[in-house]
Amino acid sequence: MTKVAITTLREVDAVLFLVDAKEGRGRGDDFIMERLKNIDTPIFLVINKIDEVHPDELFKIIDNYRHHIDFTEIVPISALHGNNVST
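-> structure tokens emitted (87 positions)
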């Protein structure tokens, strides 16, 4: 993230942190989460492509993220299949 993007995080009403369920958490995710820890803005974790992982794996993915930030809400979605997405 650039300095402008980080500064902007303090000016928005909410942050949607979108991750790919199939790819797993990486260094880029860790970098972003470290910056998100320092803001008071509500942070929503959106886990996309849940249709590409076994349902049992989804719980592990959620746990992997939620232990690092107190997300306002965690929303698993599948844009392809319309899970948790209004059409």
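The chain has one domain: 3-76.
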